[in-house]
């Protein structure tokens, strides 16, 4: 049996569709249930940011999560397979017409991706004040909460509709199948069988 933590929402749905193609079985969470057990798999329905935590602590063997979240958590987990879903980038958002002013003594950045933003500025040896937000990040520069934002960009529509421009990209992201080191070795056959089956339907 393999236990797999899935992030509630679109990535979980798209992942279960891949499982359906790979194993010729339908995998659907019933109503408000958080566990789905079928055909040798136990899927857990968890919050996006909690996926690496379940996998790191061994409550799940595997998980599906965006590289952006993995980078934020800094856990030592193995990236097994790029599922090629949830493709996006983590980039700056700036008020239209403005540029990142690297000569400023300190830049205030609003973001959900605190560590990614911090590392970016550390590399440039620049002082940064991070304001941690949990959603609607694009709002922050519009109401002077921050000079700019670091957020997920897919089509760029959210930024555009809120008078922001997409600035420099910090990293590209897509959903990956991840596994903890213990399960990787202890359940190697099951893990690799799953990897091969999923790879065949990507
Ligand atoms: N517009 C988008 N297009 C493509 N991928 C996206 C988009 N927004 C987010 N993602 C990817 O999907 C993942 C989940 O995004 P989602 O917005 O559902 O989570 P969240 O709200 O950050 O999570 P949580 O529920 O833990 O707060 C992100 O970490 C990112 O990798
Ligand atoms: O470039 P786009 O295609 O417009 O997509 C980017 C938007 O998608 C995500 O938001 P989400 O819907 O997850 O909302 P939240 O982060 O504000 O909760 C992200 O935080 C951006 O706001």
Automatic annotation (TrEMBL):
Its EC number is 2.4.2.17. It catalyses: 1-(5-phospho-beta-D-ribosyl)-ATP + diphosphate = 5-phospho-alpha-D-ribose 1-diphosphate + ATP. Pfam families: HisG. It comes from Halarcobacter anaerophilus. Keywords: Amino-acid biosynthesis, ATP-binding, Cytoplasm, Glycosyltransferase, Histidine biosynthesis, Nucleotide-binding, Transferase. Gene3D superfamilies: Periplasmic binding protein-like II. Heteromultimer composed of HisG and HisZ subunits. CDD domains: PBP2_HisGs (cd13595). This is ATP phosphoribosyltransferase. PROSITE patterns: ATP_P_PHORIBOSYLTR (PS01316). Belongs to the ATP phosphoribosyltransferase family. Short subfamily. One of its GO terms (molecular function) is ATP phosphoribosyltransferase activity. It is an enzyme of class 2 (transferase). Residues 47-199 form the ATP phosphoribosyltransferase catalytic domain. InterPro entries: ATP_PRibTrfase_cat, ATP_PRibTrfase_CS, ATP_PRibTrfase_HisG, ATP_PRibTrfase_HisG_short. GO terms for cellular component: cytoplasm.
């Amino acid at each position: 049996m393999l236990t797999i933590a899935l992030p509630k929402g679109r990535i979980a749905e798209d992942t279960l569709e891949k499982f359906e193609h790979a194993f010729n079985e339908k995998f659907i969470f019933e109503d408000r249930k958080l566990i789905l057990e079928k055909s040798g798999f136990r899927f857990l329905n968890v919050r996006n940011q909690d996926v690496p935590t379940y996998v790191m602590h061994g409550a799940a063997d595997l998980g599906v999560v965006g590289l952006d979240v993995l980078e934020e958590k800094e856990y030592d987990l193995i990236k097994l397979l790029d599922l090629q879903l949830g493709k996006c980038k983590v980039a700056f958002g700036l008020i239209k017409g403005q540029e990142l002013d690297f000569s400023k003594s300190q830049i205030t950045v609003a973001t959900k991706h605190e560590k990614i933003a911090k590392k970016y500025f550390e590399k440039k040896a620049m002082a940064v004040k991070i304001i941690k937000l949990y959603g609607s990040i694009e709002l922050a520069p519009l109401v002077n909460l921050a000079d700019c934002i670091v957020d997920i960009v897919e089509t760029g529509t959210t930024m555009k509709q809120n008078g922001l421009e997409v600035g420099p990209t910090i990293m590209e992201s897509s959903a990956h199948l991840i596994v903890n080191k213990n399960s990787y070795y202890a359940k190697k056959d099951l893990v690799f069988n799953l990897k091969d089956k999923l790879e065949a339907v990507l």
